[in-house]
Design brief:
10% strand, 27 helices, single chain
């Protein structure tokens, strides 16, 4: 038991899916073989005890993703689902007898849902839903008082049916707070006549972390009435993006140093009366970055009233920031993980990296005014592109202007249902890809992030990416315009991420090379006998990163030998 509790608190930086859950699962796999074991019931008990802790611990859980059901419950690897559900049904009366009927109904619903999922392709989804149900049971077990099952059933059903896995950590923590709250609050949030659907039912869960120190029962009732009274805010909350940002922003507010107790109720009241995605986006950055956000605003030519800024944003949105034009704010709020741009800029400011900061300014300006391709393809400060354009002037129009699309054969090889294959030079794709494929060039990485602007602002680089239906990058490989040993333009395919395979995108790169009429090179093992050589002149960025070198390279001429010309 002490082992399980200890690994729950192991922090794994820059990892959305930490391995601690798997360490717990291994321990439970051992325990399940012992006489008298009740399998994962031990796991539920440990988590229930942890959920009784105050709000900061719940915030820590969110950071560790221990409530996430993205990977699911590892023990399902060894036994079929029905075996686990039999054990779970038999033990629910022991685990949470007061709520057994609601939880047993949830088990039945889960069994019906999973019956329609094909295996083995659907197994991760089954594991994820089982793990989600275990978290709900743990939240119920954490209660000190008995909660009305007529209220609980609304939330159990809503959380089990919720479609965005990223929201589950917030919702589980919110459910734990609800079952531990007073009967009056439970009655307010469990009101059967709530308008607007399940998002409107679950949104107030985030307020409970402020009770009783900051918000009273009457405050919760007033906020619920205010949210229900605004048809515009109800419509906004039904939007999946707005709902996710609401949950994330409220969680950040709990731990923020820029918000005091007196500010909380007025801010929440303004948001319930006039909710927008933009307001939540700026508030999230204020709460998560604190005073560091002022460095970003100052660097980009904006200013604001430092005192009471969260309240002003809750009232006016981006208009609270002097100098912020509508185009910039609208552009930024459209981007996924938009909060990482200010964070990246501030990190470069704190490192004193003036050249990178200058490129970030150009990235922002040209992205907003739609001159990004012209800027990154400019040879003005890029000796490498000047050399390329002497023999391949077509690239000055950009990569997309020279490539019409991937063959059906290539797409069939690389894609699963609902995925797309792109050659991208989109500014935000280039900026955020490291985060989405978990590489060292993520904007929030600690090691090589200074080299990120070379990917973004140097027109000799593009990316081959596979995206899901939401437009998120699942895997990618950088492709570069280089010079061969005869100083002629050629293409170099870098490693694919997150798999780190040299030839992950070789078929896609061949399509590009064929249409552009250029030779293609890729990395080979250093021990391989047949090698080639490619060269790069100084690029636009002060620092660059190549898979051939384990360190950042300063702006300079480079020769890479561990490459081979592609032969089919």
């Amino acid at each position: 038991m002490s082992y399980i509790k200890s690994v729950l608190y192991i922090i794994e930086p820059n990892n959305d899916h930490p391995a601690t859950i798997w360490h717990i699962a291994k321990e439970l796999a051992y325990l399940s073989k012992q006489p008298g074991s009740i399998d994962y019931c031990r796991y539920i008990s440990i988590l229930a005890n942890c959920l009784k802790a105050p709000a900061p611990v719940a915030l820590q859980f969110k950071k560790l993703k221990q409530f996430s059901d993205i990977k699911g419950f590892a023990l399902l690897e060894s036994k079929p689902l029905d075996k686990y559900l039999i054990v779970l049904r038999a033990n629910i009366d022991k685990i949470a007898p007061e709520y057994s009927q609601v939880l047993l109904d949830a088990v039945d619903d889960l069994e019906k849902e999973c019956a329609g999922i094909s295996l083995p392709e659907g197994k991760p989804d089954i594991k994820a839903k089982v793990h989600r149900l275990l978290m709900i049971i743990a939240a119920c077990k954490s209660s000190k008082e008995i909660m009305a099952t007529s209220v609980l059933v609304h939330f159990v059903r809503a959380i089990m049916e919720h479609g965005n896995k990223k929201n589950i950590p917030y919702l589980i923590a919110g459910l734990a707070r609800l079952v531990q709250s007073t009967p009056k609050i439970q009655k307010i949030l469990g009101e059967p006549g709530i308008k607007g659907g399940e998002h409107l039912r679950m949104a107030p869960l985030q307020w409970l972390a402020f009770v009783p120190d900051v918000l009273s029962e009457d405050d919760i009732e007033e906020l619920c009435k205010s949210l229900q009274a605004s048809s515009a805010s109800r419509r906004k909350m039904k939007d999946g993006k707005v709902f996710h940002l609401w949950l994330a922003t409220m969680e950040q507010a709990m731990a923020s140093e820029v918000i005091n107790k007196a500010m909380v109720m007025p801010i929440l009241k303004k948001l319930t009366q006039s909710l927008t995605y933009e307001k939540l986006g700026w508030l999230y950055m204020v709460f998560s970055m604190g005073d560091r956000l002022n460095q970003f605003l100052d660097s980009t030519g904006f200013s604001c009233q430092k005192e009471g800024l969260p309240s002003l944003i809750a009232e006016k949105g981006a208009d609270a920031l002097v100098g912020v034009n509508k185009e910039f704010s609208q552009w930024l709020m459209k981007q996924r993980h938009h909060h990482l741009l200010p964070l990246y800029m501030v990190s470069m400011i704190e490192e004193g990296n003036a050249a990178v900061i200058n490129l970030i300014h150009q990235f922002i300006e040209t992205s907003v005014n739609n001159t990004f391709i012209q800027s990154r393809q400019s040879p003005l400060h890029n000796p490498h592109l000047r050399a390329i354009y002497k023999k391949y002037p077509r690239l000055e129009a950009g990569w997309g202007a020279n490539f019409s699309g991937f063959s059906e054969e290539t797409r069939n090889k690389l894609l699963s249902h609902g995925e797309t294959l792109e050659l991208t030079e989109d500014p935000w794709d280039l900026f955020i890809s490291g985060l989405e494929v978990k590489s060292c060039l993520s904007p929030d990485a600690l090691s090589f992030r200074s080299g990120l602007m070379s990917y973004v602002m140097d027109g000799r680089n593009a990316m081959i990416v596979i995206k899901n239906q939401k437009g998120n990058i699942l895997s990618r490989s950088v492709i570069r315009m280089v010079l061969d040993q005869d100083d002629c333009p050629a293409l170099l395919l870098e490693k694919g991420y997150p798999d780190k395979r040299n030839l992950l995108f070789i078929d896609a790169a061949r399509d590009i090379a064929d249409e552009m009429g250029l030779p293609l090179y890729h990395y080979v093992d250093a021990k391989t006998g047949t090698k080639g050589m490619i060269k790069l002149l100084e690029g636009r960025a002060p620092l660059d990163y190549f898979d051939a070198f384990p360190i950042l390279k300063e702006r300079q001429k480079l020769t890479i030998n561990d490459v081979q010309r592609d032969v089919r």
